[in-house]
Design a protein that fits this description.
Layout: E1 9-13, H1 26-39, E2 43-47, H2 61-69
Parallel strand pairs: 1-2
Length: 77
Protein backbone atom coordinates (compact mmCIF):
# COMPACT_ATOMS: atom_id res chain seq x y z
CA UNK A 1 0.00 0.00 0.00
CA UNK A 2 1.33 3.42 -0.96
CA UNK A 3 1.79 5.81 1.94
CA UNK A 4 -0.12 9.07 1.79
CA UNK A 5 1.90 12.01 3.17
CA UNK A 6 -1.01 14.41 3.54
CA UNK A 7 -4.74 14.57 3.99
CA UNK A 8 -7.46 17.07 3.23
CA UNK A 9 -9.65 18.43 6.01
CA UNK A 10 -13.11 19.76 5.13
CA UNK A 11 -15.25 21.89 7.43
CA UNK A 12 -18.92 22.55 6.75
CA UNK A 13 -21.56 24.43 8.71
CA UNK A 14 -24.66 22.57 7.55
CA UNK A 15 -27.21 24.81 9.37
CA UNK A 16 -29.10 21.66 10.47
CA UNK A 17 -29.98 21.09 6.78
CA UNK A 18 -32.37 24.06 6.86
CA UNK A 19 -30.67 26.12 4.15
CA UNK A 20 -32.89 25.91 1.05
CA UNK A 21 -36.48 25.74 2.23
CA UNK A 22 -35.60 27.33 5.61
CA UNK A 23 -36.61 24.03 7.22
CA UNK A 24 -35.17 20.52 7.36
CA UNK A 25 -35.70 18.29 4.33
CA UNK A 26 -34.24 14.93 3.33
CA UNK A 27 -33.33 16.55 0.00
CA UNK A 28 -31.14 19.09 1.80
CA UNK A 29 -29.37 16.31 3.69
CA UNK A 30 -28.67 14.50 0.39
CA UNK A 31 -27.35 17.76 -1.14
CA UNK A 32 -24.99 18.18 1.82
CA UNK A 33 -23.81 14.58 1.40
CA UNK A 34 -23.10 15.28 -2.26
CA UNK A 35 -20.98 18.31 -1.37
CA UNK A 36 -19.07 16.26 1.18
CA UNK A 37 -18.32 13.59 -1.45
CA UNK A 38 -17.37 16.22 -4.06
CA UNK A 39 -14.94 17.86 -1.64
CA UNK A 40 -12.68 14.81 -1.66
CA UNK A 41 -11.84 15.51 1.98
CA UNK A 42 -10.34 12.69 4.02
CA UNK A 43 -11.75 14.11 7.27
CA UNK A 44 -14.84 16.31 7.50
CA UNK A 45 -15.81 18.44 10.51
CA UNK A 46 -19.48 19.44 10.57
CA UNK A 47 -21.08 22.19 12.62
CA UNK A 48 -24.78 22.70 13.42
CA UNK A 49 -25.57 19.01 13.10
CA UNK A 50 -28.81 17.78 14.67
CA UNK A 51 -29.16 14.50 16.54
CA UNK A 52 -32.80 13.70 17.11
CA UNK A 53 -33.99 17.33 17.22
CA UNK A 54 -37.69 17.98 16.68
CA UNK A 55 -36.89 20.77 14.16
CA UNK A 56 -35.18 18.16 11.96
CA UNK A 57 -37.84 15.45 12.19
CA UNK A 58 -35.79 13.51 14.75
CA UNK A 59 -33.08 12.63 12.21
CA UNK A 60 -29.68 11.64 13.62
CA UNK A 61 -27.62 13.49 11.00
CA UNK A 62 -24.09 12.10 11.58
CA UNK A 63 -24.94 8.45 10.83
CA UNK A 64 -27.46 9.47 8.16
CA UNK A 65 -24.85 11.52 6.31
CA UNK A 66 -22.18 8.85 6.69
CA UNK A 67 -24.54 6.20 5.28
CA UNK A 68 -25.28 8.38 2.23
CA UNK A 69 -21.59 9.25 1.74
CA UNK A 70 -20.22 5.80 2.50
CA UNK A 71 -18.01 7.18 5.29
CA UNK A 72 -17.66 6.52 9.01
CA UNK A 73 -19.04 8.99 11.51
CA UNK A 74 -17.89 10.00 14.98
CA UNK A 75 -19.75 12.51 17.10
CA UNK A 76 -18.09 14.76 19.65
CA UNK A 77 -19.64 17.46 21.79
Amino acid sequence: MKRKDSFMLGSFNICSAHFQEKRYTDKNLRLIAGKIRESGADVVALQEVDRGAKRSKGVDMPPSLSAICGHHSHYFI
